[in-house]
Write a structure and sequence with these properties.
Layout (H helix, E strand, L loop, with lengths): L1 H37 L1 H18 L8 E9 L2 E9 L4 E6 L12 E7 L4 E11 L7 E13 L5 E11 L11 E9 L7
Length: 192
């Protein structure tokens, strides 16, 4: 009986180190799987660098997301507006021209898409109305724009075209044309 007990104790003594060894292998595999899923230390460093750049410059690597103050120049007229580029490609804007008695229009809504590292295209629509006194619908305005963000990420320049359409969707060439645009990003500022 003594030999069976001794044999059992020897087997138990051999199993414990193997069990520890198996436990260590499982732990190492779990760490490696975690690094693979979350991108490892290099990805964490890259993300931190991108976040730091966004924090200090306001420029986001994925595009123009955020709000901007812009100035548009069309032949014979210059006006300002504000716009917001949403993550995922949404866009809204309002401008000074929209409240002119000769060009009453709603706020603009549209979509943008990156075409390069610092370039994007934009298309948006406004609903148009006759003079303030009656406010009857007259159609739509479509704006299309090509844009380049500067190195700082806090300003851009661009150009494009605009076309007015009547209520039946027919273009009105006499009030369509081209424009240039410059914009500055609206940055967060603490009150003084």
């Amino acid at each position: 009986m003594k030999s069976t007990h001794t044999q059992s104790r020897n087997m138990e003594g051999m199993a414990k180190p193997r069990l520890r060894q198996l436990h260590n292998v499982v732990a190492v595999l779990a760490v490696l799987a975690g690094l693979a899923v979350f991108g490892g230390p290099a990805a964490a460093t890259a993300q931190t660098a991108a976040e730091s750049k966004a924090q200090f410059t306001g420029w986001l690597p994925q595009g123009p997301e955020g709000s901007w103050l812009y100035t548009v120049t069309i032949p014979g007229y210059t006006f300002q507006g504000i716009e917001t580029y949403s993550a995922g490609g949404g866009y809204t804007e309002a401008d000074q021209l929209s409240f002119s008695p000769i060009a009453v229009a709603s706020a603009g809504h549209g979509a943008w898409k990156m075409t390069g590292e610092k370039t994007f295209v934009l298309t948006y629509l406004n609903l148009t109305f006759d003079a303030f006194s009656s406010g009857n619908p007259t159609g739509t305005l479509k704006v299309r724009q090509n844009t380049r963000i500067d190195e700082s990420g806090n300003s851009y320049t661009g150009s494009g075209d605009y076309t007015y359409y009547d209520l039946n969707g027919n273009p009105i060439p006499s009030i369509s044309g081209t424009f240039t645009i410059t914009a500055k990003r609206i940055l967060v500022q603490a009150p003084q």
